Amino acid sequence: MENYQAWAEEVLEKVKEKMVWVSEKNKDIIPYTTDANGNYDDRSSEEKEWNHDDGLNWWTNGFWGGIMWLLYQDTQEEKYAQIARVSEQKMEKCFESYFGLHHDVGFMFLPTAVADYRLTGHEDSKRIAMHAANLLAGRFNPVGKFIRAWNQVPGSDTRGWAIIDCMFNICLLYWASEESADPRFRQIAMMHADTVMENFIRPDGSVCHIVEFDPETGVMVKSHGGQGYAEGSSWTRGQGWALYGFANSYTHTGKQEYLDTAKKVAHYCIANIPENGIIPVDFRQPTQPAWEDSCGACIIAGGLLEVAKHVPELEKEMYEHLKDRMGVFRSEPYFLELVPKGIDKAQSLAVLLKEIGLTREEMIAIGDGFNDLSMIQYAGLGIAMANAQEVVKENADFITLSNEEDGVAYAAEKFILS
Q1: Quick one: how far is CA 126 from the chain centroid?
Q2: Among residues 71, 48, 179, 67, which one has the least CA distance to residue 117?
Q3: Three-class SS of residue 329?
Q4: Which contiguous run of DSSP H or E holds residue 383?
Q5: Environment class of residue 119 by beta-carbon count within 10 Å: exposed (0-12), middle (13-18) or buried (19+)?
Q6: What is the CA radius of gyration of the chain?
Q7: Is the peptide bond before 289 cis (omega within 30 degrees of 0)?
Q8: Which residues contact 93 (CB under 8 A, 6 or more apart)?
Q9: C-alpha span between 18 and 209 (Å, rounded)
Q10: 141-180 burial string, b = 16+ CB within 10 Å, else e?
Q11: What span, in angstroms and rounded, lies between the C-alpha atoms of 233 and 208?
C-alpha cells in the first residue's frame, strides 16, 4: 500500500505539472479532441456550423471545466477557477437555444456549475445548476418511469429510449433535491434507477446500454446494442455507469437495493477483467481487434472505490485480496460467501436449464437470502419465503409462507400440484 501511495502521488504531481501549460493553452475554449499536431478543437467556436446536439451542447463539454475545478480544489490556485468558469458561462447559452439539450445535462453541469457552487458558494452557479436539473427532470416519462435519452433521431422513433449513462446524470437530481429540499428531484431519480435496475441489469451482472419502452404505456419493448459490440454484449463504459451510478444512488438515498446492484455489477466486472488488466471496449468483444477503453477503466475503478466506502471492513479486505479470483457477497448480513469468479445461482441454473432442455419461463425458484436474489430475478416465477430478506421479497413474484410454516410445500401445492 505504501508503494501504491507513493506511485499515486508521483503521478498526480506529473499531472499537475502538465496541466500548468495545458490549461494556459486552452483557457479560452472548451476542448474535446486534438488534431494531428496535438492542438485541441473548440466546441464553443462560433466560426463552425454545428448540429443541434454538438458544439456548445456536446455531452462532454463539462469535463474540461471539471478538471479545472479538481485542480483548484487541490492547489487553491485561482487561475483554475477562472478557466473553469469560462466553460460554465459559455454553456449557459445552451439554455437559450434549448433544442440541442439532452439527457447529458448532468455530465455538462455537475462538474462545472455544481462544482463551482460547492467549492466557492457562487450563487449564480447554483442558479445555472438548478436550471439544468429542471430540464433533466422534464425528460421524465411518468408512465414508464424513465428519463428519456437523446432527442428525436432522424429515421428512428426514440421517444421511449432510455440509456444506462443516465445513472450518472441523475446525480444532478439528487443534488438539486438536497439543495432545494424539494423531494421531486430525488423521487424522479429513484424511479428512474428502479426502472434501470429492473430492465437493464442482467442476472449475471452485465448491463444493457439502450432499452426501448413504449412511450405511451411504459411497457419495455426491447434492448438495443448501442455502443457495445452487439445486442446482448457488455459495453465496459456502460458497466461503469451502472456500477458507479448505483453506488452514487445508494450514497444519496441509503436504499440497500442500489448498493446490492452496484456490487452485482462490480462482481461481473471483476470476474471479466482480462489477465493483463487492460479494460476492453466490450467485455464480450472478439479477441481481435483488441480495442481498449481507458475511460471505461476509470469509471469502473471509480465505482469500485465508491462501493468500498459502504461495505464492512472484512468485506472490503476480501474485495481487495480476492478480487482477481473470487466473487464476494453476503447471503445474510452476518455471513460472507466466496464463490468462483462469475458464478451465482442464476448462472448455475441457466446451465442446468440448458442441460435438461427447459426455459427460464418454465422454472420456479424459491429463496430467502441475499445470495438467492439473482435466481429469484432470473426465474419465470420467483418466490420468496415470508422470512426472506426484504430485498428478496421486493424482487419476488410471489411471497409464500415462512420456513416454519412449510412455505416451500405451500408454494409447490399452489403452483405445481393444484
Answers
A1: 24
A2: 179
A3: strand
A4: strand 381-384
A5: middle
A6: 23
A7: yes
A8: 56
A9: 35
A10: beebbbbbbbbeeeeeebebbbbbbbbbbbbbbbbbbebe
A11: 8
Q: Please, are residues 30 and 59 in contact by the beta-carbon 8 Å criterion?
A: no
CA–CA separation, 412 and 166 (whole Å): 41
Residues 6+ apart with CB under 8 A from 239: 206, 207, 265, 268, 269, 283, 296, 300
Tell me, what DSSP letter sits at residue 278?
P
Lowest mean pLDDT among 69-73, 104-108, 290-294, 338-342: 338-342
**Of 182, 185, 329, 170, the residue nearest 248 (C-alpha):** 170
Residue carrying C-alpha cell 493553452: 25
Q: Do the beta carbons of residue 281 and residue 296 sit within 8 Å?
A: yes
Distance CA 380, CA 360 (A): 5
Helix (H) or strand (E) holding 146: strand 146-147
Nearest alpha carbon to residue 43 among 24, 72, 63:
63
35: which 3 cell numbers? 488534431
| Residue in 295, 287, 296, 207 with CA at minimum distance from that of residue 246 | 207
User: What type of residue sits at position 365?
Assistant: A
Q: Give the helix ranges, DSSP H, for 158-229.
A: 166-169, 171-180, 183-199
pLDDT in tens, 230-263: 888 999 999 999 999 999 999 999 999 999 999 9
Share of the chain above pLDDT 90, in %: 70
The per-residue DSSP string of 213-240 comes to E-TTT--EEEEE-TTSSSTT--BHHHHH
Are 162 and 213 spatial neighbours (Cβ–Cβ below 8 Å)? Answer: yes
Q: Give this prediction's pTM.
A: 0.77
Q: For residue 381, which of 369, 392, 366 has the smallest C-alpha distance?
A: 366
Q: Indicate whether 322 pLDDT > 60.
A: no
HSE-CB at 184 with a 13 A cutoff on CA atoms is: 10
